[in-house]
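pasting for ref. prot 1 ->
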Amino acid sequence: MSELKQQTCEACNVNAPKVTDAELAELMAQIPDWSPVVRDGVMQLERQFKFKNFKLALAFTNQVAEIAEAEFHHPTLVTEWGKVTVVWWTHAINGLHKNDFIMAARTDALLSA
């Protein structure tokens, strides 16, 4: 299996499968800095990224926006002074799909780009 960040997202609809518990464990091992969280009954992936100032945080937010637009898969982005919180989940299925893990891995890759 290729690295998550090199995989492509697939189009999802309401019938797309959510990740299973076994898949969740396997995929989380590939993005260890992310946390699975449940909000309003919906499983999501969340990570906070720290920066030296607001300008760097905003630049990172814009980079995440670019990769989100490229895949037409959009996260929640909260930009603050020195911090960006990114939350991925698949709205169509109200939960986690493999696409979310791909996008989390691509988000991580922005830091090494």
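and prot 2 ->
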Amino acid sequence: MLTVLRPVVVGLDGSLESLAAADWAAREALRRGLPLRLVHAYEGLTPEASRLPELEAPRSWAAGILRGAMDRINERYPQLRLSADQISRPATDTLVRAGEEAELLVLGSRALSGFYGFTAGSVALATVARATRPVVLVRAGRTSEDERLPDAEGRPSARAPYREVVVGVDTSHPCEEVLGFAFENAALRNAPLRVVHTCRPPGLLGAANAEAEVIARRTAEQALAAATGPWREKFPTVRVCDVVQSGRPVPQLLREAEDAGLLVVGREHRPAGLGVRTGPVAHAVMHHVRCPVAIVPHA
């Protein structure tokens, strides 16, 4: 039976962020042995509008986005199987549909502030909230050297070992998809994997609180070990470090991901009719983590 390979798909809009996403997606496609598909949505390309001369300039600009990105990728990664599509549909609908057919979808993300980051109406945030497959967000300026540790002299190097993959896990919810994605990516990079779980501190006082916190942490460690156990057996070469801390998950993940090459978090996939949202943890790390962030939908 012929196996159909899902491509890595990257959404392009001509920004520096989307070009960084295209570079990251190209390297990821090579790591996975998959083709890369470039997608640009342009709502002006309807059959009726195609004959309007006043749309010639924006039409040429839109086509130039794909041509420029294809030339860039072909020059930097000539061994990559590459395709490109310009689609006449709203951007979010286009990216969500393309992501359904992809191994993962890669998008550019903006600067670290409320105004320049993900706003409620942004294409990236809306796409993440509706996607049924993993989505990776990449900042402008990210290079292949940023994925790796510095060399022996402390300089950026494309030959040094990969930085660790960090994954945030909530053992009270299903996390198989999230852990599977994190272990797979650590294995692809031969990188260490840091599994982070934050447990809620007990609402007690004094010595009783200290004892209750020890019990709570021990219980959380056991739950995390049970969740990661099957994946450790499936990926025996991955070096895993379990981290259990009391407190709030977002500050903990931000600290753990400071030197990471990739952060993986989950997002609950909501059935149609229940609305779309990213969840507080995914929303926070998308705004504040500098390394690429993978958001993995789960049941």
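The chain is about 40% helix and 20% strand.
The first strand starts at residue 8 and ends at 11.
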